[in-house]
Amino acid sequence: MAKTLYDKLFDSHVVQEENGTALLYIDRHLVHEVTSPQAFEGLKLSARKVWRINSVLAVPDHNVPTTDRSHGIADPVSRLQVETLDNNCAEFGITEFRMNDARQGIVHVIGPEQGATLPGMTVVCGDSHTSTHGAFGALAHGIGTSEVEHVLATQCLVQKKSKAMQIRVEGQLGKGVTAKDIALAIIGKIGTAGGTGYAIEFAGSAIRSLSMEGRMTLCNMAIEAGARAGMVAVDDTTIDYVKGRPYAPKPEQWDAAVAYWRTLHSDEGAKFDAEVELKAEDIQPQVTWGTSPEMVTSVDGFVPDPSKESDPTKRGGIERALQYMGLEANTPITGIEIDKVFIGSCTNSRIEDLRAAAAVAKGRKVAANVKLAMVVPGSGLVKAQAEQEGLDKIFTEAGFEWREPGCSMCLAMNADRLEPGERCASTSNRNFEGRQGQGGRTHLVSPEMAAAAAVTGHFVDVRQLN
Amino acid sequence: MQPFVKLEGLVAPLDRANVDTDAIIPKQFLKSIKRSGFGPNAFDEWRYLDHGEPGMDNSNRPLNPDFVLNQPRYQGASILLARENFGCGSSREHAPWALLDYGFRCIIAPSYADIFFNNCFKNGILPIQLDTDEVDILFSEVEANPGYQLLVDLEQQVVVTPSGQSFSFDVDAFRKHCLLNGLDDIGLTLQKVDQIKVFEARHKAAQPWLFNQN
Ligand code: SF4
After folding, report:
1. Has residue A466 got a pLDDT over 80?
2. DSSP H/E element including A165
3. Cβ–Cβ pairs < 8 A, chains A and B
4. Is the N or the C terminus of chain B less surrounded, counting Cβ atoms within 10 Å?
């Protein structure tokens, strides 16, 4: 029978199945400091060991400062959490890239960068954006802390099979339109619960022509559409990216690995429980206006008018969002001025993202009304690569701050945050109330749109800058 | 884990769609390395008028009188009535920990985000999914009747209103079994050590690169 990519990945990891609930074997377990302390504590309390130490890779990312780290972490609570991870990894013998390791970075950036994320794997992490790793033709889930403990102890996850959804994007993306815009356009179309209960496979010619960075951006935001997993079939782009990375198959294993990876696509005629199609040509640069990623429109659009919404729950939602965001109905998106710019996060902090933002920033200056524009590379290796290419100079000459890698203002657990009422053009993935700081107002955009907003002081169609 | 069999409790209505886990427990409280003590900071940004940070004495903080859970009539509620896509966003298990610590053992909503839904079962919280019109009925009854209580019977899979109306709900058989008996997942899985080892050996033979030592 014709199988979907999801069927292949799921079925090949089932240890045992009973009444539709499977015990799924996990190949890679990524760990960070926020969702792991209680799991390690649980292991210790019940005197359990880690099942397979070499499946685990740990890194602190959420709490680390993005400024000078030579004096450690100033906030004692953040420091304790990072030290707890260091101690747990040392005690259990787990590989960890510590804060001052050149390879440290956001967990979803370093996994692929190291080749620790491979096609055909099951990947879990106590973090919802684990969906990112699906870009490699892997089955990647975010899990809770109890499940982190469960996977550490048993190498397995108790899991029910999801339904399969295929989202096809056909055609060619216009200039200045990115994977981020595809992701936001999809969420705008199906809603933040549109993918609930599904594993989403992204397919179609526009997806095939995305780089691995672009595919990761897209799969990263599958969770924002409600899906626990997003994925893209393996092709040459995938295989070329993996080749030569530290955790990739060894030379003598390579041909067998590639032969297997070539089978990781949905078969001709495979059945999906739901199908969605978008035309690449219809997608414009996107900007969110509200407090949920589905509250999004094209840059040439307007802030919606709640009085035109007939559904009372939706109307209430729009009214509350506009109030929180400090926006008037019917305002053109390009008329919204910003206070801060954040280029970073596991959605958009890879080298390609930084190149795209730098191309816009080059030879321009951050607008006078913008108090802070910061660029936070996704990892130490991304940072080094960008510096080798001179991107840091372009940013700093334009007036951006160039920081150390980490989650930073994506969720503001460290010192980087918005003040109440401040408005930010952000390349991250969530515009929830208070996400980037209490009372902060987040507008999600692509890296080039964020850079364009930085240099003009308001949202602008990046295509009109060139 | 505390078993969940039957619950008769006061209901509190939270009439908002897409309540995310950042709202249920804001990130500054995620710095804790413990599993308990999150209750006083559940819904922190909606619940208090000032900005909460870990280590504050929450009993002295100004409450937001407009936030529904602060109303005297809902004090002591153990059942949370909510709207679509409850628990979306971050995978933080701190969200169910905070709800449990606050006193909620059961949530009723038309739909949930996957990871949150799953995390509830791991912590002895029963998330019940009812149809939107059934949830609508409950919202109007709760708001109209101070002291409104529901009976939740997991064994029978029903929610019973004070007037005797009952709504049945679905629950996965395995999860039901674990909740009813307060069973720890890990212990159950470790009963299958042999099967896991057999699988692992076969998997390693087929894809040895997955097991490289680094
Ligand atoms: S960058 Fe943001 S979304 Fe990604 S892992 Fe860090 S906090 Fe989570």
Report:
1. no
2. strand A163-170
3. 187
4. C
Q: Report the C-alpha gap between B67 and B73 in whole angstroms.
A: 12
pLDDT number for residue A239: 98
Give the closest-approach CA distance of B9 to chain A in angstroms.
Answer: 27
Distances (CA, A) of A236 to A119, A212, A241, B138, B174: 12, 10, 8, 54, 41
Q: What is the mean pLDDT of residues B131-146?
A: 97
Nearest atom, ligand 1, residue B90 CA: 8
- In this prediction, residues A121-130 reach a mean pLDDT of 97
A-chain residues within 8 Å CB-CB of B22? 411, 430, 432-435
Residue A422 · residue A441 · CB < 8 Å: yes
Q: What is the pLDDT, as a whole number, of residue A388?
A: 98
3-state SS assignment for residue B83? coil
Q: Up-side HSE of residue B38: CA atoms within 13 Å toward CB? A: 29
> ipTM of this complex > 0.85?
yes
Strand order in the sheet with A21-25: A14-18, A21-25, A156-160
Q: How close B17 comes to chain A (CA, Å)? A: 8
Atom of ligand 1 nearest to the CA of A430: 3
A294 lines ligand 1 (CB under 6 A): no
Is the model's pLDDT at A62 over the cut of 80?
yes
- Rounded to an integer, what distance in angstroms lies between the CA atom of residue A68 and that of residue A66? 7
Return the C-alpha torsion angle A77, A81, A82, A84, nearest 10.
130
3-state helix, strand, coil in chain A (%, to 5): 40, 20, 45
Give me ligand 1 centre to Cα B25, in Å: 16
Residues A152-209: tens digit of each pLDDT: 999 999 999 999 999 999 999 999 999 999 999 999 999 999 999 999 999 999 999 9
Residue A209 has a pLDDT of: 97
Long-range contacts: A186-189, Cβ < 8 Å, 24+? Answer: A186/A221, A186/A225, A186/A276, A186/A278, A187/A221, A187/A224, A187/A225, A187/A293, A187/A294, A187/A296, A188/A286, A188/A294, A188/A296, A188/A297, A189/A276, A189/A278
* Confidence category of residue A19, pLDDT binned at 50, 70, 90: confident
Pick from B96, B115, B203: which is nearest to A25 by CB?
A: B203
Is the pLDDT reported for residue A48 higher than 90?
Answer: yes
Q: What residues of A are in contact with residue B203 (Cβ under 8 Å)?
A: 13, 25
